[in-house]
Structures are given as structure tokens and as C-alpha cells.
Fold:
Amino acid sequence: MTESSLSGHTNGAAAMHTGSAVMDIHDITKSYQMGQVTLDVLKGITLQIQHGEFVSIMGPSGSGKSTLMNILGALDQPTSGEYFLDGQDVSRLNERDLARVRNKKIGFVFQSFNLLKRTSALRQVELPLIYNGAGERRKRATAALTSVGLEARLDHLPSELSGGQQQRVAIARALVNEPALILADEPTGNLDSRSGMEVMQIFQELNRDQGITTVFVTHDPWIARHTNRVITIRDGNIVADRQVAEPLVAGESERPSEAEELEGIFREAYYGGSEEEYT
Ligand SMILES: Nc1ncnc2c1ncn2[C@@H]1O[C@H](COP(=O)(O)OP(=O)(O)O)[C@@H](O)[C@H]1O
Ligand SMILES: [Mg+2]
Structure:
């Protein structure tokens, strides 16, 4: 299977682990040795995410969400288990090959935007292209910024942008290499609810219009309600995995004033645990 075959192929199927799963993990564990004590953080996670899905991962603080995201993002290797990314077994790649896969196939968005302070929006988005030795950098970076609605902010520094706009620059940077998937770890965590919705709107558009597979971690059931599938993990295990019956469209519905009531419904549906477990 070649690195460039990112979607919907029928030939070469023998080399593919499963049909169109972009992420296919089998019984993944992750343990850390802390002196004499072994800390089992992921305890056997099996999960498939298909091309074009828009998935949120929820769970209490410390449940292993970021650890899972780091493995899904090929930033870290599992202790045991298998991971097929776009049909390719990445659980046994060395660091150099892992970095190449990561670079080519995955766009990352973080809670703290991770932008360079004295660098324009355009330049920030050109950087992954420079790193990859890609051509037409200015054109491609401009297109990525346009796709997140920032075509009028190309020359702005982060300090000249709102939080929501900064996160959109980070999304454009994640997109510019045309990754097979976007992974975002609490991308709305540092934003007020209006900016959070602005960012959700972008993720929804990218998913809907460009079919970009998106997985992100959120603590906010209201945000999760805007995705198509919610996976809940607790204490290193998946405890729920549900399709969202009618995902909300970002910006169309206000967070209701009876938010607590709504949250109660989701807590029951998605968590099934006690309130104090969740932060
Ligand atoms: N590098 C590490 N070494 C040791 N323990 C770690 C390491 N990374 C994470 N952990 C532990 O793994 C557990 C899950 O962490 P994490 O995946 O960050 O949780 P979450 O993102 O759900 O809040 C925590 O108990 C954390 O302390
Ligand atoms: Mg985390």
C-alpha cells in the first residue's frame, strides 16, 4: 500500500487491514513504569474510525484521553496492541517513519494554540509546507486560511487576533498538508463559548464539505452534541460509544438557558457516572 492512497480504494485491498477505517486499533494498552509501580493508563482499547467521521472523545480528567490521542496521532507508541492508520500498521514503525506518517497524514490542533508569537498567520501556516519541502507555499497557505475564514487576516500576528481566530490559524496550519485526519485535544478548552462555537463551525464545515475525518477531545457535552459520534472513556476503557442522533449545527442553536437540564441528559446518556468524576 502506498502512502498516497488515502481514501476509498478497492484495489490493493489485501494490504489493507479493513475496508475504509482510517484508524483501526486493536486491544491497545499503554502502561508507564513509575519506579516499582506500573501505571496502566489504557487497558485494552479497540476502536475503528471510518473515513469522514466526526468523533468526540469525552471522559473524566485522567481517564487516558490525551494518551489515546497521542497514540492515534502517532506521537507515541502503545505498550501492546495494533494500530492501523489508513491501512498501514504503525504500531511497529521506528521514530523516523512514524514522524513521516504523522507529517503526511495527521493535522494536530491543541488547546493552547501553539502559535509563534512574532509570526504572521500566513507564515505560521506555511511552516509545515517548508518543513515538508512543498511548493506553492504561499498559495496553499492562503487557501487554507481562506477555508477557515481568515483571508483578510493573513498578515496579522497572534496578538492581533482573537482567541477564536488564533485557533482558526492553528486549524489552517493543521490542514495545509491535506491530512487524512485532524486530531484536536480540547480545541475549544481555552475559548469563551462564542469563540468555541466559531471553531466548532469550522470543524463542522471541514468535515461536511471536505470530508475530513475529525477526532477531538472535549469536556463539554454541548460541544460533543455537535459531532456525529461520542466515545466515552473512563479509567483507560471505552465505556460508551454512541452515534449522536441529530447533531446540532454550530451557530444555529443557542446553548439553551436550561443548559443544566440538557447537560443532565447527556451526563446520563454519555457518562453514566457520578458528577464529581468529571471536570
Ligand atoms: N508520561 C507519563 N508518565 C506517567 N504517567 C502518565 C504519563 N502521561 C500520562 N500519565 C498518566 O496517565 C493518566 C491519563 O493521563 P491523560 O491521558 O493525560 O488523561 P486525560 O487526558 O484524560 O486527562 C494520568 O493518570 C496521568 O497521570
Ligand atoms: Mg488530556
Notes: Confidence is low (pLDDT under 50) at residues 1-18. The longest strand covers residues 21-34.
